[in-house]
TrEMBL record:
Lineage, highest ranks first: Bacteria, Pseudomonadati, Bacteroidota, Flavobacteriia, Flavobacteriales
Subcellular localization(s) per the UniProt record: Cell membrane
Natural source organism: Algibacter lectus
Entry GO terms, CC: plasma membrane
Residue ranges annotated for the Peptidase M48 domain, each copy included: 146-327
Start and end residues of each Co-chaperone DjlA N-terminal domain: 387-484
Cross-referenced InterPro entries: DjlA_N, HtpX_protease, Peptidase_M48, TerB-like
GO BP field: proteolysis
Protein name: Peptidase M48-like protein
Topology term for the membrane: Multi-pass membrane protein
Keyword Nucleotide-binding annotated: no
Coiled coil ranges: none
């Protein structure tokens, strides 16, 4: 027989029903054989039952694989397909880190960012990468750097790149590499003399592949620093945090392209080790597992209540986070799609979920997700934001607009309807009760993100009043967070703008 169920749960029921039917038939045959005293038929009934159950087990396994394949295809079909094969003939929509892609989709829908980006492009004009590089650095021909060109050809073939690669070097002991905005038929990779001299072929292969990854995923489309400079009078601090968060997520995607080219996770680990420590001699005994274990200690530090909010304005993830994210990719079914020598140990979904958790250690956390406590969190943020807005005696329109940007629309509308019936003392009492209810269930990072979002309200009207800071400090105390955090958030955000 062939199973027809569309879900695993229905298949289990169908399989069990088939087994019951086979068992009932066997019992009926056995009873008939025993009544007639036909011992041969008893044996035949037993063998037939064994054959049927074996066949059912095989069909059951086959159908599970078919359902999983259908589910995988459905997920893939529902994934946004935003990357083209204009630059390379590989599946970039499969390779990209979800966090990178999701921010790009969000930016595409954000009118403020798009308007600012349009002004950046209008004011800056097209950057002439090759002209600049020919004036400022040395072009490395195949004769000058045969190994580097061999690496370039390997990466081009592995990533199915359509353009040629041109290499340049500049004098610096600092280990650095970058990829300049490409032309239609050429990519420009520039390396410092330090990294070129002191990194092995395998390590440089990862570096070159990583830089090509930035081009393939069109990371040049959102020049973060230029967008923030151009939008300093229009973009909110939350835009800066999201742009930098995307910048960090983009590194995860580029790292995957680097591993595709290098295909040696040990070499990738040595690359990060050299970049982090600056040590390239044998004076230290590099151990990949020990280096990966540093992530555990870093995670503990980043979850501390005294977390430094300046992390949210960092353009690159900390190296232990990157190597941990790449370790997960190296073990994934996703990587196995590109590298036939890999047997995927974890699914794409499991990999992406864990990497998202890792990256959240440096990112603003999404607090409006549907969860058991989301409504209370949103209510707390609204009331806290309203108290901050009202601290100086005037609730400005810009403050209400900022408040609407950090609270889910449905909760915001409901709170605006009920706020008029509450006195300030009643609001304070409710805030105290909400923080008491949420204290146990909120992580330190969630508390920090609530306070981060509420800090936006204090300077939404262009001025920061001491009475508003006082309300923020009181909210921090209710959540058992050091008030220094508030001062650092405001200082860092003002620095960005």
């Amino acid at each position: 027989m062939a199973y027809t169920s569309e879900t695993i749960s229905d298949l289990e029921k169908e399989h069990q029903a088939a087994l019951n039917t086979a068992q009932e038939k066997m019992m009926a045959d056995l009873n008939e054989a025993q009544t007639s005293g036909n011992h041969t038929k008893i044996q035949e009934a037993s063998v037939e039952f064994q054959n049927i159950t074996t066949e059912l087990a095989q069909e059951y396994t086959k159908r599970i694989e078919e359902i999983n394949a259908l589910n995988h295809k459905a997920v893939a079909d529902n994934e946004p397909q935003i990357y083209t094969n204009n630059r390379a003939n590989i599946d970039l929509n499969l390779l990209v880190y979800d966090g990178d892609r999701d921010f790009v989709i969000e930016f595409q829908k954000d009118e403020l960012i798009q308007d600012t980006l349009k002004r950046v492009n209008e004011n800056s004009g097209k950057f002439k990468s090759r002209k600049h590089l020919l004036k400022s650095s040395l072009r490395l021909t195949k004769t000058l750097a045969p190994m580097l060109h061999e690496i370039g050809e390997h990466c081009k073939n592995t990533l199915k790149l359509k353009a040629d690669i041109e290499f340049f070097v500049y004098q610096s002991d600092i280990f650095n590499a970058s990829c300049y905005p490409p032309d239609d038929n050429k990519l420009y990779i520039i390396l410092s003399s330090g990294i070129l001299e002191r990194f092995s072929k395998e390590e440089l292969t990862f570096v070159v592949g990583h830089e090509i990854g930035h081009v393939l995923f069109e990371h040049f489309d959102y020049p973060v620093r230029q967008i923030l400079d151009e939008g300093e009078n229009h973009l909110a601090p939350i835009h800066a945090m999201k742009l930098y968060a995307w910048n960090r997520n983009a590194e995860i995607s580029a790292d995957r392209a680097g591993l595709l080219c290098c295909q040696d996770f040990e070499a990738v680990g040595r690359t990060f080790f050299k970049l982090s420590s600056g040590v390239t001699t044998d004076s230290l005994d590099f151990q990949l597992n020990a280096y990966i274990e540093q992530f555990v200690d870093l995670e503990e530090v980043l979850n501390d209540a005294n977390h430094d909010p300046s992390d949210w304005y960092s353009s690159h993830p900390f190296s232990p986070l990157r190597i941990k994210a790449l370790e997960l990719f190296n073990k994934s079914e996703t990587y196995a799609e590109f590298n036939p020598n890999i047997t995927g140990e974890i699914t794409e979904e499991a990999m992406e979920v864990e990497i998202k958790r890792i990256m959240s250690l440096m990112e603003p956390e999404n607090l409006d997700d549907e969860s058991e406590h989301s409504e209370k969190i949103q209510r707390l943020m609204f009331l806290g934001g309203y108290l901050i807005s009202n601290a100086d005696g005037v609730v400005d329109d810009s403050e209400i607009q900022a408040l609407s940007s950090i609270v889910a629309p449905k909760i915001f509308a409901n709170c605006m309807m009920t706020i008029k019936g509450l006195t300030e003392d009643e609001m304070i009492d409710e805030v105290q009760q909400l923080t008491k209810d949420l204290d146990i269930v909120l992580s330190v990072m969630q508390k920090l993100n609530i306070l981060r979002d509420l800090s936006i309200i204090s300077y939404a009207d262009g001025e920061i009043d001491d009475s508003e800071i006082n309300v923020l400090h009181n909210l921090a105390r209710l959540l058992y967070i050091n008030t220094d955090f508030i001062d650092r958030v405001i200082s860092d955000a003002q620095g960005v703008n």
